[in-house]
Amino acid sequence: MSSEGSIVGGRYRLDQPIGRGRAGIVWLAFDTRLFRTVAMKRMYLPVGLPPERAGQARAMAMEEGKAAARIEHPCAISVYDVLPDGADVWLVMEYIPSRGMSVFLTEYGALSAEQAAALGILLGDAMATIHAAGIVHRTLEPGTVLLADDGGVKLTDIGITGGGPHAAYRAPEVTRGGPPSPAADVFSLGATLYTAVEGVPPFGEDGTAAERPPQNAGVLTGALQKMLRSDPTIRPTMADTVIALKAITEGQERTAFVPPTAPAMPTMPVAWMAQQPGGGPPGQQAPPSLQAQPTQQIQPGPLMQLPVQQVPQAPAPPQPMVPMQPPQPMLQSPAQPTARYQPTPEQRAAAAQAMREKAAARRRMILTVAAVLCAVLIGIGVAELLFV
């Protein structure tokens, strides 16, 4: 059994459990080669199989991990690696601070129809990308949907058989023994969104009860009923489902799912904003509630921002009065003659001697150059006379 501090594949250190899925424990791990935090899960393998069947199960798990690693979508968890470690196969994924949708619904209750539709758009778009790659999710349910702390949505266990889908979110044809298909994923998405708004699965926890009519779905009711049709041939495709959900949200798409747990932030009163510089008449005063509580936390607007503490400033301490002194006349010093430099006779004689030496040197240089030129000209003339 793996435990904290264990090294998997000679590379990944298991630090602590962070969740539990249908296939087993999800670990927070550290990649000692690339120095990054990852999430790891030991893939489900049936126990008690003969050696040949056990080898086939490990090979199938490796193929499922490789297929999941091909998916690239903002709402799909990224798979970094799949590796065998002894008799186990481990899946290495990106780590996203989040909580499972099932945990979220248990703690905070159901979503509104509009929130569920926005969530369905993100999940449906990711599922359409998965289907375009020739992969079926197989186990879409609230337990495989992560609501990230930054407002994002991540879909996990893409194409992973694991311990099998939850009965409440399994399509009827799959329950009867049929193969998983994109149409079965549409049913699973519908059951997941139904649970998000109603708080319970549409056909009970075992998936065999009569369909429960939705009571809180509102504008989402029609889309859910189409997705939950028992006949897979008349269910909408995943792409059509996304189009229908976008129509429900009236084009107000969200790039991130905002959980309904953030409290509404108070806005600044209009009168208080009006008394700010340039915001209203100069004589307008703040509301009494703000005047009576100078330390009240005032929010700058409806956005999620840190509160700003309004603290009254303490008055400056009084300064002692100092009598003014009469101005003193400025004292002017008598003008002093400007000193001029006067060289001594010896310095004047030395300077004159230096100038004479420089002039003599220039004359010697000129005479030397002239003598060289004359010699060259004479040489040229003699050469012409000799060779004529």
Automatic annotation (TrEMBL):
<keyword id="KW-1133">Transmembrane helix</keyword>
<feature type="compositionally biased region" description="Low complexity">
    <location>
        <begin position="286"/>
        <end position="296"/>
    </location>
</feature>
<dbReference type="GO" id="GO:0004674">
    <property type="term" value="F:protein serine/threonine kinase activity"/>
</dbReference>
<feature type="domain" description="Protein kinase">
    <location>
        <begin position="12"/>
        <end position="258"/>
    </location>
</feature>
<dbReference type="GO" id="GO:0005524">
    <property type="term" value="F:ATP binding"/>
</dbReference>
<keyword id="KW-0808">Transferase</keyword>
<dbReference type="InterPro" id="IPR011009">
    <property type="entry name" value="Kinase-like_dom_sf"/>
</dbReference>
<keyword id="KW-0812">Transmembrane</keyword>
<keyword id="KW-0067">ATP-binding</keyword>
<feature type="transmembrane region" description="Helical">
    <location>
        <begin position="365"/>
        <end position="387"/>
    </location>
</feature>
<dbReference type="Pfam" id="PF00069">
    <property type="entry name" value="Pkinase"/>
</dbReference>
<keyword id="KW-0418">Kinase</keyword>
<keyword id="KW-0472">Membrane</keyword>
<keyword id="KW-0723">Serine/threonine-protein kinase</keyword>
<feature type="region of interest" description="Disordered">
    <location>
        <begin position="327"/>
        <end position="346"/>
    </location>
</feature>
<feature type="region of interest" description="Disordered">
    <location>
        <begin position="272"/>
        <end position="296"/>
    </location>
</feature>
<protein>
    <recommendedName>
        <fullName>non-specific serine/threonine protein kinase</fullName>
        <ecNumber>2.7.11.1</ecNumber>
    </recommendedName>
</protein>
<keyword id="KW-0547">Nucleotide-binding</keyword>
<dbReference type="InterPro" id="IPR000719">
    <property type="entry name" value="Prot_kinase_dom"/>
</dbReference>
